[in-house]
Structure to design on (662 residues):
């Protein structure tokens, strides 16, 4: 048997890591590739980055694979850790990669406050609508009515609409794509990295093993087909009413704006306060 | 003469929380994160004003969890980082205290303790966190906790806390309380060149992390600080000496827990400090923190009445001064443990002393008040009758 390696692996992955932890059909590989392609296309080096992740399947995208400084943190806290990293290393790109449970349930407060501060982080939030690693529990992103292991009679709660929430919290750049849109996702991650401010790229991703089973959407191909059929561009969605938008995934750029960024303000203040007068 | 922004050399009459801030700056602190909480707020307030003057950063976070996480992140970015809070904040920080332990992160946590449990009484000092700082996070670990008794020592011990954090790559607590945090006393700040400052050792580049020991050296591995191309792999999950996650090898699991513990215990003689004045006495008063002032006053009072009473003061609560307590116990008939709580260190002291002498506990006459020396003397007399 011969092993074939992705061309990006040699340049961006730790050489001694040979296996991923993802299930067959998982969307994480697509998201990871979008991140690495974005870095590659921008001509950046892994030493330009610090990657911070939390707990959950998608937190394993940078750690242990990316050959860079990686900080794998506690559940829900990667943005809080990353805030300290960024303020300590304002010249580095600090990227947070984690899931919907990590960043919007247990870590929801850190997400909205980092967006409010407009600190220059790039957050790739992999939204698979469920807790995958722990066995398919309801997440704040699980649509109402879906039966999961912790909502066996159907989820009664309403789900978070993450991208608009982060726009409202004050982020500089917010986009949402699905794993059916890897090129658009790559482009948005590039913009997020280049953006001076808080950037969130919500990557709606398939979890065929847990979500596919719970939602009865089926396997990976069925879920990608579902993403294709149900994704609506933001501009078009604005012309549709609530009933027409039920069950749809609105994709596109939700905001792209200039506003004072936190770490840059600190660099300026520190230099003003310490220069000899 | 140019004003030294970093070290405020001179004699000051200020509160303990001010002294703590100036100690942090003198030690080289350049990052702090915190959330407002009485009676610790002044430390964060002063840091917010002072840190930018020395090129540092202050972040007010959305909660204490975020504060300690940001401080740990900044430490990995190469900063000398701290956070400051009180009991309820420590409760929220516990998970991340374990993270700092497991990832061997230099960090100073100032705890200006207050009356509990729960929201308790914010403005009243009480040594309510002595055990929770050492045992509050899940899993097994050792912690370093220093116990000042005065504003002067809040200055001195905050510097020492930063030095120990840097030398051993560990989180270090400064256990203040509402009494000394808000008390104003004389504080002498020496010239900058008279203050000893320690800095962490930093790892060298290697082809891969597998060729470098970044963790789990009982003699302290150089830290693979971020931003230097060292490609550090840092995780609080069980990892090997290179930082790579390993959740299957029992030997790795053993080392992951044991090495950070052994690192502290191996160097305990360098960390543990006591003040011992218990030769040729019948009764020794054991204390730490604010209560030590009452213990000393009570011992003086007792001696003035011809009673043979001495003191043993723990300047470090953790790692526990087991040998020092044992040695003192073997010299006396009775050990009276004074704590401004219901007896948090008492079981630890008793375990080391009860084989050699009688050991008893005395809290303050009213919880939340400081021990009246006359009240302590009354108990001493009952003991020796």
């Amino acid at each position: 048997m011969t092993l074939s390696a992705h061309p990006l692996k040699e340049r961006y992955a730790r050489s001694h890591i040979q296996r991923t932890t993802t299930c067959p059909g998982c969307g994480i590989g697509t998201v990871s590739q979008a991140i690495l392609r974005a870095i590659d296309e921008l001509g950046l080096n892994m030493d330009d980055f610090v990657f911070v992740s939390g707990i959950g399947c998608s937190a394993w995208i940078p750690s242990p694979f990316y050959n860079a400084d990686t900080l794998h943190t506690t559940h829900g806290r990667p943005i809080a850790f990353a805030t300290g990293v960024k303020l300590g290393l304002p010249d580095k790109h600090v990227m947070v990669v984690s899931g919907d449970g990590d960043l919007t349930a247990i870590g929801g407060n850190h997400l909205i406050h980092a967006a409010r501060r407009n600190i220059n982080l790039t957050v790739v939030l992999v939204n698979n609508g469920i807790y995958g690693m722990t066995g398919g529990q309801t997440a704040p992103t699980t649509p109402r009515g879906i039966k999961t292991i912790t909502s066996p009679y159907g989820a009664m709660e309403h789900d978070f609409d993450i991208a608009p929430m982060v726009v409202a919290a004050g982020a500089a750049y917010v986009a949402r794509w699905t794993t059916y849109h890897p090129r658009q996702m790559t482009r948005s991650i590039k913009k997020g990295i280049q953006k001076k401010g808080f950037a969130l790229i919500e990557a709606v991703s398939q979890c065929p093993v847990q979500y596919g089973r719970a939602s009865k959407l089926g396997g990976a191909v069925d879920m990608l087909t579902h993403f294709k059929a149900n994704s609506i561009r933001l501009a078009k969605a604005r012309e549709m009413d609530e009933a027409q938008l039920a069950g749809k995934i609105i994709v596109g750029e939700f905001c792209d704006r200039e506003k004072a960024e936190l770490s840059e303000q600190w660099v300026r203040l520190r230099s003003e306060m310490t220069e000899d007068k | 003469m140019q004003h030294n922004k970093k070290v405020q050399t001179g004699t000051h009459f200020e509160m303990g929380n001010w002294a703590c801030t100036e100690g942090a700056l003198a030690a080289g602190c350049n990052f702090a994160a915190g959330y407002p909480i009485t009676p610790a707020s002044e430390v964060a307030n002063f840091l917010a004003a002072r840190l930018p003057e020395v090129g540092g950063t202050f972040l007010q976070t959305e909660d204490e969890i975020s504060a300690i996480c940001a401080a740990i992140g900044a430490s990995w970015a190469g900063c000398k980082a701290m956070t400051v809070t009180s009991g309820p904040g420590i409760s929220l920080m516990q998970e991340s205290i374990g993270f700092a332990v497991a990832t061997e992160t230099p960090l100073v946590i100032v705890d200006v303790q207050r009356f509990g449990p729960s929201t308790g009484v914010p403005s009243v000092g009480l040594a309510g966190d002595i055990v929770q700082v050492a045992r509050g996070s899940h899993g097994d670990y050792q912690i370093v906790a220093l116990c000042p008794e005065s504003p002067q020592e809040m200055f001195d011990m905050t510097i020492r806390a930063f030095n120990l954090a840097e030398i051993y790559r560990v989180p270090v607590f400064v256990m203040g309380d509402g009494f000394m945090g808000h008390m104003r006393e004389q504080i002498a700040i020496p010239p900058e060149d008279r203050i000893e400052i320690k800095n962490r050792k930093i790892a060298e580049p290697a082809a891969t992390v597998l060729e470098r020991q970044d963790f789990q050296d009982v003699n302290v591995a150089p830290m693979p600080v971020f931003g230097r191309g060292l490609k550090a792999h840092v995780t609080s999950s069980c990892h090997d000496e290179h930082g790579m996650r390993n959740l299957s090898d029992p030997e790795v699991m053993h080392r992951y827990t044991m090495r950070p513990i052994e690192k502290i215990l191996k160097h305990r003689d360098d960390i543990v400090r006591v003040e011992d004045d218990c030769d040729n006495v019948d009764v020794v008063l054991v204390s730490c923190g604010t209560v030590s002032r009452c213990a000393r006053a009570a011992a003086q009072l007792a001696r003035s009445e011809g009673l043979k009473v001495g003191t043993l003061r723990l300047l470090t609560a953790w790692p526990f001064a087991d040998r020092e307590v044992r040695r003192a116990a073997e010299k006396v008939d009775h050990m009276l443990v004074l704590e401004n709580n219901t007896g948090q260190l008492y079981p630890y002291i008793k375990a080391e002393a009860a084989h050699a002498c009688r050991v008893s506990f005395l809290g303050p006459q009213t919880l939340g008040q400081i021990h009246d020396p006359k009240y302590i003397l009354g108990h001493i007399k009952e003991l020796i009758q």
Strands of chain A lie at 49-53, 69-72, 93-99, 121-127, 130-131, 137-138, 173-178, 199-204, 231-233, 249-256. The mean pLDDT of chain A is 96.
